[in-house]
Amino acid sequence: MRALVVEGVGARPAVTDVELPAPGPGEVRVRVRAAGVCHSDLSMTNGTLTPGYPLVLGHEAAGLVTEVGADVRRVGVGDHVVLNWAPPCRGCWPCRHDEPWLCAEAGAPSVPRGRTAGGGPLHVTLGLGALAEEVVVGERAVIAVPAGLPFESAALLGCAVLTGVGAVTRTAAVAPGESVLVLGLGGVGLATVIAAASAGAGRVVAADLAGAKRELALAAGATDFLVADDTLTRRVRTLTGDAGSTTPSNASAGPPRSAPPGGPPGVAAR
Asked: Positions of the region Disordered (predicted)?
């Protein structure tokens, strides 16, 4: 099968042939139908993050279960699934109390799995390696979704959407009527805008260096769009009645400066 592989820090990712093992007990094979590119993929090629190499990139994807190993009970062949790069154990206290992100077993390193075309060991990003035709992962690393949900939409649930929505509903716990500032309008930022609007925020101010993102921001539910520059803090305070945004959510590389005293700056992704 083919996968997008980076051989080391600074190397150019390339599509190459690789080999994955058959699913073992508790594992499934998924035919990837749609996958997204995350900033983390760049970080794994430029040395910001240094997993093992050669490395299959990607951790945001959806697909179709094509094979299951022994003792797999939660999904079956033909199921539509989203890949989960932080699979919880589902049995510990946080998992049983609807707080799986606190599970000590959640998450997966970039582990060896499979072989390169030359027979050498192959690593897969966050236990997935989703920028590939197929993945073989543990049953805990897949989440069944309705068959009517387009794969292209389902794939975004694997990282960008859950990060943005989690920032609003979990980290910041935005309440109806509050003001929200979203800095940076990539995939995570736009998901944050959608979630803030859905949570009933009274004002959702979206800011980005690129003025061309205005229409995207407004379509996602922003009440205001600002091009980010040195006057941003002043303009945000003007829009929100000099109080600053109740909840700034930072999906950019810079620090937020628009929170009111004591306000909760939320970092969705950096």
From this structure: 239-270
Cβ of 71: how many Cβ atoms within 10 Å?
A: 10
Q: Are 172 and 266 in contact (CB under 8 A)?
A: yes
Fold of domain 2-155: Quinone Oxidoreductase; Chain A, domain 1 (3.90.180)
CATH number for 161-267: choose from 3.40.50.720, 3.40.50.300, 3.30.780.10, 1.10.1410.10: 3.40.50.720
Question: What does the DSSP 8-state code read for residue 171?
Answer: I
Q: Dihedral sign, CA of 76, 80, 83, 87?
A: negative
Q: Which amino acid, one-letter code, is at 30?
A: V
Is 63:30 a contact under the CB 8 Å cutoff? yes
Q: How far apart are CA 28 and CA 22, in angstroms?
A: 9
Cα separation, 51 vs 34, in Å, equals 24
In the sheet that 60-68 helps form, which strands lie side by side, from edge to edge? 134-138, 27-36, 60-68, 80-83, 142-144
* Chain Cα centroid distance, residue 86: 10
222-264 pLDDT, tens per residue?
999 999 999 998 999 899 886 555 555 656 545 555 555 445 5
For the chain, give the percent of residues with pLDDT over 70. 89
Please count the helices (runs of H) and the strands (runs of E) in the chain: 7, 15
Single-letter amino acid, residue 216: L
Of the listed ranges 33-42, 149-158, 259-268, the least confidently predicted one is: 259-268
Reported as type and span, the H/E element at residue 138 is strand 134-138
Q: Say whether the peptide bond before residue 13 is cis (omega within 30 degrees of 0).
A: no
